[in-house]
Specification:
Order of helices and strands: EEEEEEEH
CATH superfamily: predicted glycosyltransferase like domains
Structural class: mainly beta
Length: 111
């Protein structure tokens, strides 16, 4: 499924959500938008199409003193250069922790 044929509409985030490789804790980039079934993330290098990666999502929501962390397993469906030094990567969410689901629900209902 490509970015023009999504099952669920995506919402641009109002929050900043940092993404890290779960095992290595290496920084991947930022979440740009999200839906019930996927997300787009920005990164300095394109992610390999077809790769399945475990990602820690970390945010500090507005008006809350602590950060939230959720974990997702995502499959990279496409990548595209969005600036000379930045790539967009579209990912299908395969699994998510309960906290990751709460975080995604929050992003989808932000006003």
């Amino acid at each position: 499924m490509n970015k023009e044929n999504r099952m669920h509409p995506r919402k641009i985030l109002d929050s900043t959500v940092s993404l890290f490789q779960h095992d290595s804790k290496e920084y991947i980039g930022l979440m740009v938008d999200a839906s019930d079934s996927g997300m787009m993330m920005s990164s300095y290098m394109p992610l390999e199409i077809g790769a399945v990666i475990e990602i820690d999502m970390i945010d500090i929501p507005p008006n809350i003193d602590s950060r939230r962390t959720g974990t997702v397993i995502a499959k990279v469906m496409w990548n595209d250069r969005i600036t000379p030094s930045m790539y967009g990567n579209g990912c299908q969410l395969i699994e998510r922790s309960d906290e990751a689901q709460r975080m995604i629900n929050f992003y989808l209902t932000e006003h």
